[in-house]
Amino acid sequence: MELPYLKFYGLVEEPFSTVPSPRYVFLTEVHSTALEKTSYVVGARKGLAAVFGDTGTGKSSLARLLHQKFLDSEFISVLLTNPNYPTPNSLLRTIVQEFGTGRSDRSFKGLLDIFKGFLIEQALEQGKTVVLIIDEAQTMGFPQLELLRKLMNVESNSQKLLQVVLFAQDELRTKLAHARGRNLRSRIVLASTLERLTAAQMADTLSFRWNVASGGHEHPFTPEALQTLWEHSGGVPREATILADNALLLGFFGKQKQIDRELIEKAAQDRLDGLGGKGRVHVKLGPLLWDEVIPAGRSSQARSAPLLQSASTSIRSIARS
Fold first, then answer.
1. Cys staple from 166: which of 50, 74, 189, 309, with CB 3.0 to 4.6 Å?
2. Residues 6 or more apart in contact with residue 249 via CB below 8 angstroms
C-alpha cells in the first residue's frame, strides 16, 4: 500500500521505513569501522567477530548489508535473524538446512557430522569462505553458544573453516563474561560497538535516506527540526526514523510542505501519548534542555490536539485498509 504523503513530498518510496534495508544504511565512521573489522575477520578466515549495540542503533541493517556484501563476494553466507531456538539440536538443524547441505539427520551427532563434512568440502577442499551471521545473538542460551564454539572448532592447520559474526545487544556481553560463555568469548578476534548518533550524524543519515527515497531531491526538514529530532530521539536511529515518518504524516494532513521544529514536537508528543506517557515535553531554555511535566489540561500542545487526533484516526484507518 502506498503511503499517503509520498506524492505530496515528491517521494518515490518510503524514506523512513523501520525495515532494515541495506539500501538505506548510512555508514557513519563507527558503522564503517565495524563493517571493516568484521569484513577483515571473515576475509582472513580468523573465525569470530562481534558487533554490539543498543536497541535501534542499526545492528540489523548492518547485518543485512554485510550479508549482501559477502554474497556479492561469492562467499557462502547465511543470515539468521531469530536464533532463539529451544535446543542446540533445533539450532543446528536450521543451520544445516539454511546452508543448503541437502541432508538431514534426527540425531545431534548426525547433524554435526553433516555440517562438518559440508565445511570440509566447501571451505577446505574448494577454498570457499563460509559465513554464519547471527542477528539478535543475545537471545541465545548457553547451550546454543556452546554449539557455536563446537562448530568453530572445525579448522585446518592454517584457518577456521567457519566464520561467524554475532550482532547483539549488551546482554550478550554479560553472557560471555559468565563462566559458561568464556570459551566462546576468548575466540572473538575483533569486536565493535555501535554508539548513538551525534546531531550531525543524524542530519547526514536523514539526508542520505531522503536522497535515496526521492531520487536526489532536497529534504524538507529545517535545521531546527533536525536538532529537535535528535533531542527527542536521543541519537537512536530507529527512534529518529519513527519520529521523522510521523512528522511527515502530520505535515501531509496539515498541508505543510516544510517540516519545522513544531511538527517534530507534535510528532514526539503524539508518540509519547500513544505509548502511555505522562505528557513530558522538551522545553529549551537558552543552551540548556529541560524536561518539564505538563499537568493534564495545561499542555502547551493543546492547540494541536485536533490535528493530532485527526492524524491518529487516519493512521488507524490506513492500518485497517
1. 50
2. 4, 5, 311, 314, 315
Alpha helices in 215-260 (DSSP H): 223-233, 237-253
Select the CATH number that applies to the domain covering 29-194 from these four: 3.40.640.10, 1.10.3720.10, 3.30.450.20, 3.40.50.300: 3.40.50.300
Cβ proximity of 16 and 212 under 8 Å: no
Could you tell me the pTM of the whole model? Answer: 0.82
The second-level CATH assignment, the architecture, of 197-320 is: Orthogonal Bundle (1.10)
Q: What cell does 54 get?
A: 543498543
Domain map of the chain by residue range? 29-194, 197-320
